[in-house]
Write a structure and sequence with these properties.
3-stranded parallel β-sheet
Amino acid sequence: MVKVYLVEDEIIIRQSIKNSIDWEKEGYEFIGDASDGELALPVILKEKPDILITDIRMPIVDGIRFAKELKEKLPKV
């Protein structure tokens, strides 16, 4: 299965995305979510998802900076 991780600072949006898709039925494994890139990074490095869904505008680490940093560490994500 394709593993998916979600990073979104707004909890209502994060929960909506997480709960509105039948991940397994669509062939995905939802492996987790976080409110910002700083919290997400250790989990992502451990779990190595195939797909990252991230917000662009977030506090602490924005989505663009986070994606660039992650691409250096896990270029296949």
